[in-house]
Automatic annotation (TrEMBL):
GO molecular function: NADPH binding; oxidoreductase activity, acting on NAD(P)H
Alphabetically ordered keywords of this record: NADP, Oxidoreductase
Official protein name in the record: Quinone oxidoreductase
UniProt xrefs under SUPFAM superfamilies: GroES-like, NAD(P)-binding Rossmann-fold domains
Xref: Gene3D superfamilies: Medium-chain alcohol dehydrogenases, catalytic domain, NAD(P)-binding Rossmann-like Domain
Keyword NADP recorded: yes
Pfam family, one: ADH_N
Domain Enoyl reductase (ER): 8-281
Coiled coil: none
InterPro entries on file: ADH-like_C, ADH-like_N, ER, GroES-like_sf, NAD(P)-bd_dom_sf, Quinone_OxRdtase_PIG3
Superkingdom assignment: Eukaryota
Length: 284
């Protein structure tokens, strides 16, 4: 998201800061007169509409959560946008049930890593992820609550691999970031009554030909979603549900960090598709 916004391809919602960054960890400096449940000096994490690439940020109390005591500042900063986006796609929209199978594309991205862990937390049977290298697939499999299966999309047809893993039944849920280039294989990989949530369209804005018969026959549900375009009320309710259900389950993990003065290098690493998981920029 930050890279797309920097390049002019992700317009910010009206009235929102054009400063990059939608998540952070930090300490409360001031409280609004009607805010309850928090106190000055409290360590928190937050989901913002923008403005997190800064020393100070102002946002609604509904988008703030207590910082887990077992996590460092760096580890905690990786939670809000990644996990809440994944939570919305997997749990709120797709209504993932225990025992169902999930396919997660861009598995080594920040949201992909979060989706892997949430799928396991909610009892998914097979959590299948796609990535571009063996190193990334090993990382996803070996992390806490990691994937059960990995597919190298550069060497394997993920729809065929899904069929093998699920005995030809397909997956119940797909989380996709790619769009047109994966459309046909995604539809083939879905089970009957399957759900697909599209969180980005990295291969372009249009699918040239769509076979509606497959959607009808399989009774598929396809939905696009961007968390940033949601209302403050929706985000606050989602944050509360996420924290109530998941707030006690976070574990520390090793994350790549850059100094504030090296933010350009952090963006270059993401653009080169070298990162595994979240990259954190430390402001000091």
């Amino acid at each position: 998201m930050d890279i797309m916004q920097r390049k002019g391809g992700y317009p910010v919602p009206p009235g929102v800061s054009d400063i990059l960054g939608v998540e952070f960890s930090g300490t409360i400096e001031e409280l609004g007169s009607e805010v309850s449940g928090f106190e000055v000096g409290q360590e928190v994490i937050g989901l913002a509409y923008g403005g997190a690439y800064a020393e100070y940020i102002t946002l609604s109390a509904g988008n703030v959560m207590p910082k887990p005591k077992n996590l460092s500042w760096v580890e905690a900063a990786a939670i809000p946008e990644n996990f809440i986006t994944a939570f919305q796609a997997l749990i709120s929209i797709s209504e993932l049930k225990s025992g169902e199978d999930v396919l997660i594309h861009a598995g080594a991205s920040g949201v992909g890593v979060a989706a892997n862990q949430l799928a396991r937390l909610y009892g998914a049977k097979h959590v299948i992820t796609t990535a571009s290298s063996k190193d990334k697939l090993d990382f996803l499999h070996n992390m806490p609550k990691g994937s059960t299966h990995g597919v190298n999309y550069r060497e394997q047809n993920f729809a065929e691999e899904v069929a093998k893993i699920t005995d030809g039944q397909g997956v119940n849920v797909i989380i996709d970031f790619i769009g047109p280039d994966y459309w046909d294989k995604n539809i083939d990989a879905l089970a009957k009554d399957g759900r697909m949530v599209i969180l980005a369209s990295m291969s372009g804005p249009e699918v040239p030909k769509v076979n509606l018969v497959k959607l009808l026959y399989k009774r598929l549900r396809v939905q696009g979603s961007t968390l940033r375009s949601r209302s403050p009320e929706y985000q606050a309710a989602l944050v509360k549900r996420f924290w109530d259900e998941c707030g006690s389950h976070f574990q520390g993990e090793e994350l790549k960090t850059y100094k504030w003065t090296e933010v350009a290098e952090a963006h270059k690493e993401m653009e080169a598709n070298k990162n595994m998981g979240k990259i954190i920029v430390e402001i000091s």
